[in-house]
Amino acid sequence: MNSIDILIIAVYLLATIGIGVWVAKKASKGLDSYFLGGKSIKWYYLGLSNGSGMFDVSGTAWMVGILFLYGVKSFMFMWMWPIFNQIFVMMFLAVWIRRSGVMTGSEWILSRFGDDKAGRASHLIVAIFAVVASVGFIAYFFEGVGKFMTVILPWDVSLVIADTQLLNSEQVYALVLIFLTTIYTIKGGMFSVVSTEVLQFGIMVLAGVLVAGYTFYAFTDAQVTALIPAEWTNVAFGSELTGFWAGDFESFNALIDSQGYKMFGAFVGMSLFKGIFASIAGPTPSYDMQRILSTRTVKDAAYMSGFTNLVLFIPRYLMIAAIVLLGLVFIAPELAAQGGISGNDLEVILPQVINNHVPVGIKGLMLAGLLAAFMSTFSAFVNAGPAYIVNDIYKKYFKPEASDNHYVKASHIASFAVVILGVIMGFFADSINSITLWITSALYGGYVAANFLKWIWWRFNGWGYFWGMLSGLIVATLQYIIDQGASTYEEGSLLYQYAQIPAIYLFPVIFGFSLLGSFLGTYFTPPTAIATLKSFYTSVHPWGWWKPVREQLTETEQIGKNKDFKIDMFNCAIGIVWQSSMILLPIFLIVRDYNKTAISFLVFGVTTLILKFTWLDKVKKLD
Q1: Which residues contact 328 (CB under 8 A, 6 or more apart)?
Q2: pLDDT for 177-203, tens place per residue?
Q3: For residue 526, what is the DSSP state?
């Protein structure tokens, strides 16, 4: 590495830690200040912070790999998470969530199911889910940033004692970065997280613009057009995904055939099916929900969620597309020469390109930007997970009466505990992809059904929520364990055949078991107290099957039926197209397909105009 690049990274790290510690005094006033910034942070700062938190290294490395191999169709792979859940949050869920006025997602559950035995069971399981999810994501970041740093940095920093290697370089680099990020996050809480993430977002945008500009300087339009197959830039797809690589790169088709996405039409359909239910279920109890609950007003919550979508995708995919183009020029011939490409090769394209094919100065900014991506996402989870441990478990069940200073100190301990557990899990992870599958299938698979029903059905109660979540998580975890042991099963056996099915196609099985647990838990137990249902309905005011609750409202409590279902779903459909245009626009621009760039820009403009009248004007009228 050039000394200029090292200097840029050092200045960035010092600035980030300095800002994080500088604002720490504001976090010491109590749990509300520590975890939600005292609900005093402006919505556009929270929107930038939220976007920065979604701009992670591991996810960026994965996106670079799939865009490299599959072309522009790969943006639909993101629907597995699903990426468009941010659109549903923007259109109506942010408003519903913020109206509750609580501190965490599991505390929000008590406002829905009450504080009796059933409500506490639902409250406890969602708190446990939030902590487990935070630990899982920290493991995901640990695995991703370690691989990234060892390819980039030239030094072997493995820890060896008496000829025994205790830690390899990947683990040492990851531990150092995690330690630095944990210090300022724990010290300053939400104030530190948001302040540093705004800075980090600016660095990431600058890095993306510079590397994109470098590709225009380094390659002519004719060179880029000759390099990329026509099918690579084709968004249209049929029932099957066929390999389109030819010539020296024909061996890449074998990986396309083996990754489980061959039946692409069915894959997209299943991703949409899962995505719609998962999106209406709402954000998982993590940093995204914390940002919504941190906003000053309901209107600000809607603005913040919309702003997150607007600022995230174009700069992120500008960087991703530029890295992919450099990878196609320099890395693809090397991979073709070695006789093929594997899934592991895809994961290291990002660091290899930065290490070998980005000029001095831009390389330092790219590294600072990607370190910022790691630190911002990591800090968001370190702030979110402990909120559930302290506020929803420790304070509620073990020490309900204590000083604010005591709870802040307890939050520091909880943060360290979550980080340590995540790091331990990261040591045992096989790859970024294995943790991605666990998060998307086991965790999110078990979350969907119960959290979908909680919004729309008055009869759904706390025990239904508890058993729905539990049954979904158990089945999803069993599916993940079976999948992890695929290499040990006898070929042709039932377990072998089951393990060969991609996780996304098993979502209906997980969803079905979770629904069954939800319905059985609900019908074999009494309904939630009508006073709790009335309070929830009048404050949150969701659409769905709430007629029996509305009929119980007194004249002073009366609130009309929420008739926004059709307009909300219309806005979500338009929003998914709007979001997709922001992903495709920078990709087409970088690969010099100017006709499709213009079409993407036109689609972005038209959908923005539609949402101005159907969503933004409505938000402006909110109290």
Answers
A1: 68, 227, 228
A2: 888 777 766 665 666 667 777 887 888
A3: P
In one-letter notation, the amino acid at residue 155 is: W
CA atoms within 13 A on the CB side of 419: 24
How do residues 143-176 score in pLDDT, each as one tens digit? Answer: 777 777 776 677 777 877 767 767 778 778 888 8
Q: In terms of Cα–Cα distance, which of 14, 10, 19 is closest to 197? A: 19
Distance CA 480, CA 447 (A): 15
* Segment (H or E) for 67: helix 57-70
Q: Which amino acid is at 183?
A: I
Q: How far apart are CA 127 and CA 99, in angstroms?
A: 20
Report the C-alpha gap between 313 and 306 in whole angstroms: 12
Dihedral of the alpha carbons of 363, 364, 369, 370, in degrees to the nearest 10? 70
**Contact by Cβ (8 Å): 29, 404:** yes
Tokens at residue 66, please? 């799939």
- How many other C-beta atoms can be found within 10 angstroms of the C-beta atom of residue 353? 25
Quick one: which of 432, 49, 359 has its CA closest to 204? 49
pTM, two decimal places: 0.85
> Are 199 and 16 a contacting pair, CB within 8 Å?
yes
The tally of CA atoms less than 13 A away on the side-chain side of residue 415 is 28
DSSP 263: S
Between CA 482 and CA 498 the distance in angstroms is: 8
Tokens standing for 589?
A: 């621009």
The one-letter amino acid at 508: P
The DSSP letter of residue 71 is G
Structure tokens at 155: 């030094």
Q: Within 13 Å, how many C-alpha atoms sit on residue 445's CB side?
A: 30
Separation between Cα atoms, residue 410 and residue 398, nearest integer Å: 12
Token pair 């320099």 is at which residue? 330
Q: How far apart are CA 137 and CA 387, in angstroms?
A: 16
Alpha-carbon dihedral sign for residues 32, 33, 38, 41: negative
